[in-house]
Amino acid sequence: MAKRLIPSLNRVLVEKIVPPSKTSAGILLPEKTSQLNSGKVVAVGPGTRDSSGNLIAVSVKEGDTVLLPEYGGTQVNLSDKEYHLYRDEDILGTLHD
Known about the structure:
By secondary structure, the protein is mainly beta.
């Protein structure tokens, strides 16, 4: 049974990207070079409200590749996959090709 998690308020559900440990030519990469804390946004919450009651939307959207902090977030396991929940303000930025 597949579950769908919809984050509340300004939370963002992210699936971390695991970088390859080996190049296409078969060269093993050192552990430090393959460490880039990035992930793909799977789901976003509706946003939060300011003191006037106006909705402040989340700054990322589903499908964005984001740069994540080294520590933080809440680990969530759904359907044998590992996801992380972050607040919108904890995400460091978006990555573009």
